[in-house]
Amino acid sequence: MPLARISVPAHLAPAKIRALADAAHEGLVETCGVPPKDRFQLVSAYAPEMFIDPTFPDVARTRDASIIEILFLEGRTIDQKRNLFRWIAEHA
Known about the structure:
Blueprint: E1 3-9, H1 14-32, E2 41-46, E3 67-71, H2 78-91
Parallel strand pairs: 1-2
Antiparallel strand pairs: 1-3
């Protein structure tokens, strides 16, 4: 059972937050073999005081930049993690 912590800017629309959360969960199911009903997510909204560098490392981020942290109780391979990150980025 992985736990996903999703931090979003306070101004983000609920539909965008839901799409991000859905992409994170679907990515876990598709790339890491997580059962579809094992959905445990904590979503937090952050104020403008949250500092996310808009260009590190050579990436352009908008004011909608969000952070997803995923905690696994059991290990996953590096390939699974890379595929998960790619899945989320492509589907969010």
